[in-house]
Specification:
Elements (H helix, E strand, L loop, with lengths): L1 H4 L6 E5 L4 E6 L10 H13 L7 E6 L10 H7 L3 H20 L4 E5 L2 E3 L1 H7 L3 E4 L4 E3 L2 H4 L10 H6 L1 H10 L3 E2 H7 L4 E2 L3 H13 L3 H15 L3 H15 L3 H12 L11
Parallel strand pairs: 2-3, 3-4, 4-6, 5-7, 6-9
Antiparallel strand pairs: 1-2, 7-8
Helix pairs in contact: 2-4, 11-12
Length: 267
């Protein structure tokens, strides 16, 4: 907890409860939680800190009526950035989102309202996404004379495919509700996305931390490898994770019928 207490946060909120469930809140509701440079810097520090602060799972949410409206266009216009300046800003976005995807702590995004542009890039860096009936996804860069810079070409295209992503950017197409779940933008749809995300986070937190770390980091790394390299890496990770003492104890408890019954999460 001391690591978290040392963080100086102005645009985000961070809470870690006694069960190790962290809640990260984008806290710029009057700006539709748009991502300015300072918010990205805070996300880097938060997701650098959480794995070392005992977090077992994390909920990502937005304050107010928006999850995130993407890049802070007011700041972008006022800064009048040179190409190299915006390139370095994009690299900061990648640093933040990579710390999320590869950090080893399960991140569940509770989505409501607009999840657009950079907000979709942020949400796609979470491991699971839950939507309510107000949530919708969009990539309006084409209509704004922009191009994605925070990993959409990597993560969003991986979720829904290249063709659907191009369609979203060219035409402004939006996805919501069951269609968003069907195409892969969301994993769950619920009346209350935050309550569902909290349920999922607590379920994830019951897993062994080393297993969660492998699931929430190794899989992404292996997707970046050749099949031959991925097979080798998977074998190494399985060798470490599957022989940990705590796993042996859990398996023995299941064998003897004394372990907890598995309750799959329902969509």
């Amino acid at each position: 907890m001391s690591r978290i207490a040392e963080l100086k946060l102005e645009h985000t909120l961070l809470d870690l409860d006694e069960d190790g469930i962290a809640t990260v809140t984008l806290n710029r509701p009057t700006k539709r939680n748009a991502l300015n440079a300072a918010t990205i810097d805070e996300l880097i520090e938060i997701f650098r800190t959480l794995p070392r602060a005992g977090a077992r799972a994390c909920i990502l949410r937005g304050a107010g009526d928006h999850f995130c409206a993407g890049l802070d266009l007011v700041e972008h216009h006022a800064e009048d950035r040179a190409p190299e300046d915006f390139m370095h800003l994009c690299l900061h976005w990648h640093e933040a989102f990579n710390k999320m995807e590869y950090g080893g702590v399960p991140i569940i995004a509770a989505l409501h309202g607009p999840v657009v542009g950079g907000g979709l890039e942020l949400a796609s860096a979470a491991h699971l996404r839950v939507i309510d009936d107000t949530a919708y996804f969009g990539l309006p860069e084409g209509q704004r004379g922009l191009f994605t810079g925070g990993g959409a070409t990597i993560r969003v295209a991986d979720l829904i495919g290249k063709s659907r992503m191009i369609d979203m950017m060219l035409t402004g197409r939006l996805y919501r509700g069951d269609e968003a779940v069907t195409v892969g933008l969301a994993n769950y749809r619920a009346p209350d996305s935050l309550a569902k995300a909290q349920e999922i986070a607590r379920r994830c937190a019951e897993n062994l931390p080393l297993s969660n770390f492998a699931i929430c980091s190794a899989i992404s790394h292996m997707q970046n490898m050749s099949p031959l390299d991925a097979a080798y890496a998977e074998s190494v990770v399985a060798g470490v994770v599957n022989t940990q003492k705590a796993a042996s104890e859990r398996l023995a408890a299941f064998r003897d019928g004394s372990g907890p019954r598995i309750k799959p999460t329902q969509g």
